[in-house]
Amino acid sequence: xxxxxxxxxxxxxxxxxxxxxxxxxxxxxxxxxxxxxxxxxxxxxxxxxxxxxxxxxxxxxxxxxxxxxxxxxxxxxxxxxxxxxxxxxxxxxxxxxxxxxxxxxxxxxxxxxxxxxxxxxxxxxxxxxxxxxxxxxxxxxx
Length: 142
Prior knowledge:
Layout: H1 3-20, H2 23-29, E1 30-36, H3 46-60, E2 65-74, E3 77-87, E4 101-113, E5 116-124, H4 126-132
Parallel strand pairs: 1-5
Antiparallel strand pairs: 2-3, 3-4, 4-5
């Protein structure tokens, strides 16, 4: 198997580990000193912070799962598009539990070093998630 396929497989495994709440798998797949370029507020650095994010999202959406829609690899980088899905059972971005099913599109770029993910960039459609939850989004009149 070539390095590109291995990198794609590791990326898919991280998405599956987040969805399955498998923190032990994240220990193997992510570098201990992982750099998360888009951390949540007050997120710890390194793999501990990524695990905090995964735990936080799963406490809001216990059935949270990711479906990898597209994954591309070049050099030591992987780009992926994921659709996350889950039922909101806990607070999320200031919105109380709604029991609504939410689908959130996300894009990631990850950099590998030594077979593990060393850097993670990500962006997700949080506005769309809030709208699906029925949150009031108010536009500034100006």
